[in-house]
Amino acid sequence: MYWNIGKVIIENSTWGNKFIDNLARDIKLEFPNATGYSVRNLKYMRKFAEMFPEVEIVQAPLAQLTWYHLQLLMDKVPDRAMYLWYADKTLDNGWSRNILLHQVGIKLYERQAIEDKAANFERILPSPQSELAQETLKNPYVFDFIEVKEGIIEREIERELVANIAKTIMELGTGFAFVGNQYHLEIGKKDYYMDLLFYNLKLNCFVVIEIKNTEFKPEYAGKLNFYLSAVDDILRRPTDDPSIGILLCAERDKITAEYALKDINKPTGVSEYKLSDFVPQELVDTLPSAEDIEKRIKDKYKIEEEE
Hints:
The protein is an alpha/beta fold. 49% of the residues lie in helices and 17% in strands. It is built from 16 helices and 7 strands. Strands 1, 2, 3, 4, 5, 6 and 7 form a 7-stranded mixed beta sheet that branches. The radius of gyration is 24 Å and the shape is elongated. It starts with a helix and ends in a 6-residue tail after the last helix.
């Protein structure tokens, strides 16, 4: 309906700048109890119809989103392709308006949709898992809930990621389930500990994440390849797809990473990560805290907290 009203406004644009003002007034007089027809909202309707002249696109997927989501995207995302990308992701992930605002603010499209990724997924994995893995990878990952401190080490970053696991999973993306940190494997009578281990329900596989608070070095890929071989041998079930590795570094040269992954035989991606000074505080405040999410889950399922 809003799209059709916008189309009518466009068709009557020859009447001048006052047409929308007069239309808002006439609707108010004719339908005094109707809401949503202010001058401001009518201008949004016109903009929406201008941006998407094809009714088929408006009907799906845009019609499945709330008008408030669509208004936000009109304000923040001028590019049509980017607009549709965020609309699809909002439907896939069930984002609220505030979460959508956060994702636009931290430039999720630029980090996930733009091809600035160093990975060997296309060479190692069959389709469609290779495409899903490629879509999952971001560069950089933004952990805006971790405070930047001089000399911060990998273990501190890992500890904060686990302490804020709900926000960590939100940044990693849809389908991630936390398995453990410093996950222990005994190999050849020696103990090894992986930084973070997840299972991804969309990819149907384990995901090993290693964190390095330095620039990327080729030897890091070799160690992660070793962990993936062990996970596939020890933890992977017959119904699981091959495990995937993500190496998070403070800095990453794409060409160096691509050379390092060229002969690695396990599916691996290399990305940078950024900490709290990457995002304005007003966007950080739109996210619920891990404690809020935990409380909602407990309230929903009436789980008694242990003393």
